[in-house]
């Protein structure tokens, strides 16, 4: 069993509240728009990091991470990318890639909207952790914490870190 912390859209902001959640998991996954690589360095000091680059990320992030990351965790096939839409409204080319790859869990970021839903048509769990940075239109910084046991996703929790900057 692996404990995972899923974040996205940090836009260069590492919230100190993340530390306690990172310490409680085995790995951190970042679904893009890292912003500043210091975010990754902070995470890597605490736990292993898997990440993809997003549309705001520069050459450093693009040199270290892929646009699409596909791997196995426990017995589950995981697919992470930044821009993907969501079930029923996937971005151009995404549904075709999902039909080929057949992941058990499909993760993206970009929208700043937390969404977890099962896509019956593709037989996969879709996850977007929202955004945990200070930039964007989201009201609350969010992330997801869960466990992967074999192929099963267990103990999925939404974590709110508090309001985005400028929100009262």
Task: Report on the architecture of this protein.
It is a single chain. The protein has 168 residues and is of the alpha/beta class. The chain has a single domain (2-163), classed as Metallo-dependent phosphatases (Purple Acid Phosphatase, chain A, domain 2, 4-Layer Sandwich), CATH 3.60.21.10. Helix content is 16%, strand content 39%. The protein contains four helices and twelve strands. The protein has helices at residues 18-23, 38-44, 59-64, 94-101, and strands spanning 2-7, 27-30, 49-51, 68-73, 76-81, 85-86, 89-90, 105-107, 114-119, 124-129, 140-149, 152-163. Strands 3-2-1-11-12 form a five-stranded mixed sheet. A five-stranded mixed sheet has the order 4-5-8-10-9, with no helix packed on it. It has a two-stranded antiparallel ribbon with strand order 6-7. The longest helix is centred in the middle third of the chain and has 8 residues, at 94-101. The protein is globular. The mean pLDDT is 96.
């Amino acid at each position: 069993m692996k404990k995972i912390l899923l974040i996205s859209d940090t836009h260069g902001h590492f919230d100190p509240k993340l530390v306690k959640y990172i310490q409680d998991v085995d790995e951190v996954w970042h679904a893009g728009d890292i912003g500043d690589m210091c975010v990754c360095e902070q995470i890597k000091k605490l736990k292993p990091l898997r990440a993809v680059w997003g549309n705001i990320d520069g050459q450093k992030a693009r040199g270290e991470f892929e646009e699409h990351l596909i791997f196995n965790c426990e017995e589950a096939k995981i697919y992470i990318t930044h821009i993907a839409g969501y079930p029923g409204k996937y971005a151009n080319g995404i549904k075709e890639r999902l039909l080929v790859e057949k992941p058990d869990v499909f993760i993206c970021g970009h929208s700043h909207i937390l969404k977890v839903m099962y896509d019956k048509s593709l037989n996969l769990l879709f996850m977007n952790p929202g955004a945990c940075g200070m930039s964007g239109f989201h009201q609350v910084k969010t992330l997801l914490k869960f466990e992967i046991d074999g192929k099963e996703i267990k103990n999925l929790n939404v974590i709110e870190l508090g309001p985005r900057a400028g929100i009262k």
